[in-house]
Specification:
The protein is of the alpha/beta class and about 325 residues long. Helix content is about 35%, strand content about 25%.
Length: about 325
């Protein structure tokens, strides 16, 4: 019995081990290169996630702030989001190669934001299908110049080679991908976090990849339609998922609670901004007061919440 327990403990450790990829990165102020570890969490059952850092895009952004995932099936690999630069994408690709020699069949972008898409170029040599929302290619092209300037300003040398790679296959409603012993069902969502949101439901391990429809720990971000985002979060509650990988934050099995937390913040923000408008208060004033009761519950609240008010206030004025 004791030997059996030792063997089982060993298997448990193996199944939870992380994959490390050590890459040189530039030191500060001209110092010698230092090593940064690109860590991928093994969730078991062929599901792997790299957790980006909770950094604001205007402070300390290095292209690695969101969750990047890959799913290994018997036929090959599906990658879900690739990071904010070619360098991050290459680190992700190297981590995949440490796990499996199987081909990368699909690279899926959950939406258009730059921290999720600029690692695509690292996978061009694999010749996968690049997959995204039906509106993703147009959104990429519309934002190309803006994103290039942003990358150059924030990433410096790491912006080199970080080119846009548009979808070769699109999701208009639903799309099922076969990885051999498991399927991925992709859903294109109505306008919510952005107008290009896609979620992915993996059927073998019961994993939902929610993209930026769901933030955990980090303040949710609204770019497009706050009411649409609240609605789509409600729809996600019907998922058969056993665990959820958010766009930002830790993987959770308590995902209904995580969705409720996000909805509570968004509903509070929506209500408070509406009250400010009704009282004739300025947008600048609303930035200081809206959703203030949520301040201690979320990371990067000060900057993200102000941006959210800036986004939704003009739209709500026309309700």
């Amino acid at each position: 019995m004791r030997n059996l327990m030792i063997i089982m403990s060993t298997f448990a450790l193996i199944s939870c081990q992380a994959v490390h990829v050590d890459q040189p990165i530039s030191g500060t102020q001209g110092s010698n290169n230092v090593l940064a570890s690109f860590v991928v969490e093994n969730l078991g059952d062929g599901i792997y996630v790299h957790h980006g850092a909770h950094l604001d895009i205007d402070e300390g952004y290095q292209g690695d702030i969101c969750n990047l995932s890959f799913v290994v099936g018997s036929k090959g690999v599906a990658v879900i989001d690739t990071g904010g630069s070619l360098k991050v994408g290459q680190q992700l690709r190297e981590a995949i190669r440490k796990v499996t020699p199987l081909p990368v069949l699909y690279v899926i972008n959950t939406h258009v934001h730059p921290d999720h898409i600029y690692g695509n170029a690292a996978f061009l040599a694999d010749a996968p299908q690049f997959i995204g929302h039906d509106k993703l290619a147009n959104a990429m092209e519309t934002r190309r110049e803006q994103y290039q300037k942003l990358n150059a300003r924030l990433l410096h040398e790491d912006a080199i080679g970080s080119e846009l790679v548009k979808p070769t296959m699109v999701v208009k409603d639903k799309l099922t991908l076969d990885l051999g012993d498991r399927n991925l069902e992709l859903t294109a969502h109505p306008v919510a976090h952005t107008n290009t949101d896609v979620s992915i439901m993996e059927n073998k391990a019961g994993t939902l990849f929610a993209g930026d429809l769901l933030f955990i720990e980090r303040t949710p971000v609204v770019e497009s339609d706050i009411k649409g985002l609240i609605t789509e979060l409600e729809e996600l509650k019907n998922s058969p998922a056993k665990q959820v990988v958010p766009g930002h934050g830790p993987v959770t099995k308590q995902w209904l609670a995580a969705i409720n937390n996000a909805q509570h913040y968004l509903n509070t923000l929506l209500t408070d901004v509406r009250v400010s408008i009704k009282k004739g208060q300025s947008m600048e004033s609303a930035m200081d007061t809206a959703a203030a009761t949520e301040k201690d519950k979320w990371r990067l609240f000060e900057v993200a919440n102000r941006r959210n008010v800036n986004t939704i206030y003009p739209a709500l004025e026309w309700e």
